[in-house]
Amino acid sequence: MDSIDVPIYKQSGRIGIDDALGELRRKERGGVLIQDGNRYRLLFAGDLLRARRAGVLNVQDVSGGEPVMVTTEEHAISHGLDLHEPHRTRRQFENILDYYNHSYTLPMPSQPSTTGTTTITKVVTRSEDLGQMLRMTGGYECTGEPKHFFPRPYVRAGDNCPRRPECSRADGSTPKVISSS
Ligand SMILES: [Zn+2]
């Protein structure tokens, strides 16, 4: 279990992918939350980079993403969650996410905070590893062809591309992971 603040954008808005990636680098985060009414999904920096390369301009036009479960007072009662201080009930959050087979949850009512043009809100992850992906600084890509984007999976700059042998380099060298710009 991990608890981490990530930028949140409304599906009805228009945020350029470049702006969102810049925000992720500044905030040292690896993903953004998209709100569409009472439905939420998580887009990783790798999803944004892949979409940008495919010609997509706005974050809201990036399809897919990881569904994020909403936990309410009702869940808090049935599973013993502390929605305001999730760290106090780590095991209970892991249990409910296991039970509903989700990796991420947004405790409600959420407590978003806005600085400048960016609003951030707290997301709870099922495992530490899942949290680590969100604590990355922006996104990464590989130096191979076809190019891969991260996270997911979790990578560090300098790693060999974990998607090999899908990608390769003309000179036969091993594709490496580098920070995207
Ligand atoms: Zn690759």
What's a concise summary of this model?
The chain has 181 residues and is of the alpha+beta class. The chain is built from five helices and ten strands, in the order βαββαβααβββαβββ.
Helix percent band: 10-25%
Beta-strand residue fraction? 25-35%
**Spatial strand sequence of the major β-sheet:** 1-2-3-4-5-7
| CATH fold description of the largest domain | CBS-domain
How many helix segments?
A: 5
Report the CATH C-level class of the largest domain.
Alpha Beta
Structural class, by secondary structure, is alpha+beta
Instruction: Report, as a whole number of angstroms, the end-to-end distance.
Output: 30 Å
- How many domains, in number, for the residues? 2
CATH homologous superfamily heading of the largest domain = CBS-domain
Mind summarizing the main beta sheet?
6 strands, mixed, barrel
Mean pLDDT: 95
Shape: globular
Secondary structure tally: strands: 10
CATH architecture of the largest domain: Roll
Tell me the quaternary state: single chain
**Gyration radius, to the nearest Å?**
17 Å
Detailed description of the structure:
24% of the residues lie in helices and 28% in strands. With 181 residues, it is an alpha+beta fold. It has 2 domains: 2-134, CBS-domain; 139-181, no CATH class. The strands form 2 sheets. The protein has a 6-stranded mixed β-barrel with strand order 1-2-3-4-5-7, surrounded by 5 helices. The protein has a 3-stranded antiparallel beta sheet with strand order 9-8-10. Strand 2 and strand 3 (39-44) form a beta hairpin. The longest helix has 11 residues, at 17-27. It is globular and about 60 Å long. The two termini are 30 Å apart. The mean pLDDT is 95. The structure holds zinc ion.
